[in-house]
Amino acid sequence: MKLKLKLRARKKRVNRSFAGTFFLFLMLAAFGAFMALPLVYAINNAFKPLDEIFLFPPTLFVRNPTWNNFLDLMNLLGQSWVPFSRYIFNTVFITGIGIVGHVILASAAAYPLAKHKFPGKSLLFTTVVLSLMFTPVVTQTPNYMILSWLGMIDTYGAVIIPAFAYSLGLYLMKQFMEQIPDALLEAAKIDGASEYRIFWSIVMPNVKPAWLTLIILLFQMLWGSDGNGFIYSEQLKTLHYAANQIILGGIARAGAGAAVALILMSVPITLFLFSQSRIIETMATSGMKD
Question: Using omega within 30 degrees of 0 as the cis cutoff, is the peptide bond preceding 205 cis?
Answer without folding.
Answer: no
